[in-house]
User: What shape does this take?
Amino acid sequence: MSFSFQSVAPDTAVVRIGKALDFRNAAEFKSASQDQIQEGTRNFILDFSGTGILDSTGLGAIFSLYRQLTPLGGQVVFAAVSRPVQVVVQLTRTYKVFRQYPTVEAAHQQLQTRTAPSGSRAGAA
Amino acid sequence: MPVLLRTPPLALFEGLPATTSVAMTSVQSQFTNLDTVIAEVHPLLEAWGREAALVLPVKETQLDQMRLAVHEWIANLVQHADFGDRRPLIELSLSLDEHDIHCVVEDNSVGFDFGRQLEAQRAKLEAERQARGRAPRRARARAAHHARRHRQPALFSPPRCRRASAAPRILDLRYPDAMPQHSILIAEDNPTLRRLLEYRLGKLYDVRAAQNGAEALALVEEAVPDLIVSDIMMPKMDGFALFSLLRQDERTRTIPFIFLTAKTDDPSRFRSLGEGVDDYITKPFDIEFLLTRIERILERIALHQQQLNARIGRDFSDRLLPKSMPQVPGYRTFFYTKPVGDGGGDLFDWTEIRPGSYLFTVGDIMGKGLQAKFYAFSFLSYIRSTIHAVLEQTDSPADLMRRVNEMLVRDELLDETFASLLIMRWEPATNTVTYANAGHCRPIFVTPDRSGIVEHSELVLGLEAQEDYTDRSFQIPPGSALVTYTDGLIEQVADGGEPFGEKGVAAAAAKALRTEQPVQSMLKGLLRQSAEPRFADDILVFWLERQAVGQTAEVSAAVPATTAA
Assistant: This one.
């Protein structure tokens, strides 16, 4: 199992979680996202489309990422949350911490708006 | 006494009498090593060009038989290899040093373009690799590492062509796979044997090779291997010295160690085995035998580790689990747990905080195996001490929850520990349960008429230091039960392919109410409807039931906020 990381902005990456994030690949997820943080990524959009399994070890790996990013001013958001993932999120009440978006694009757009300084937006317009 | 033979092989074959093959049969039986090597080398020779170096540990008197065997091999090569329309010119050299015969076979065919053939082969492999998609990062790193290590190719040096048109390329024929490999370190001063071992073992393990004991020691410093195969007689530092140094160091003393040596004398053998070497194999040796020995040793160590983990896991489990249950008239309590494998971070504890008031803790430390178990153990100790420390000031589950959460977020030792936790205070005299739930599986409440889920729940522990937790209370009516559990139950997959979820578990609990062994009945009920006849994850259930007979006065007890299941 491997995770695909795609940079959509200098400090934002989309992680396609794939079929499962559980005790089998949580360590890999951790080390891969660690590399991303080293390279300057601060915002992670986790794409859960088609994810069938998110167990407590997998969730723990996401929590670690969150704990690490918070002091750096970074964020972890969820996109295209599948039903099994939604169940876990509801159970652990983590929707309070991880914002959810219907699509990766929506998440990205929102992150851009929130993080881009107003001056640069005016300049782009 | 070096023996050098340099001759075009075809002439040799033509000169051989018809009885050769018969003679070969007897010769080959003495050269099991040669067989193995040829079987390995032959297909690669075809792919890579045609130079090979073999080392065959034989006695000088066997040299002639040896030569015959090699001729047979070359005959095979010529027969099977595609030389196009060119006439092959294969040169063979045999040399004898202290212990070994070195045999070098080179194809020096005029005009044969190995470079181009290698390039084509490489392109083909590259295309195949790309077709499989981008290799995972670790696999790529290993392939690169492998390519670096084999810049001087293992068994095959670059073919020497009289008119070589392209520099030889190194092919990584081993497909990078995702399976973790055991790492093996070889210490051998004989370059040919070293390369042979590196090549042969490299098919199964992650192999590094050193020329002597000192080099091997440096490689062990870089990364501790899972096993070492070492020669005894080597320059700079011999095998005995290497072994002895490794045994003196705490970090390296348990590395399995095999001597592969020409020293057949008993004193060397006894000394080695006496000092704790795992195996002593003398040259000439059968490579299959060596491989078998390595595999057995690695297997034994894996098994040992597994057993040790299971033992530690069981020990933790025993300490994590209650030895008894509260005995209160008018109530029945049941507790059941069953870990899978090494188990995980499920925890359960109870304490009578003052006469007639009980505190229950049910939780799950995120993670798997021993590590989670260890965290669960430390965590539970912390919760116990927190309860004792603050009991004078508060017996509120929410207060306890806040403190435990702060500890999880702030304590560096427990960094990266997250937990779901349910703390309940039970006062049987008033049939009241007061609880705070930090993202744990919500309890199921079963009355004779209906079953529901005790809804109120808040954020899991360890994420936000300032998170607030609140208490909720409800009363248990006669003939009703409160069922708490961990996620193994709701994640168990039903025969329809979907997990049972809270509703599935609630339905099973309702059917089990007031049976003699309600937890067993509920679990049996779930298993009957499961896709697999066993639980896939750790199971933990605590069942608190107020008996219908001999009921006390509170008939119109307030039931907790539940959703109907």
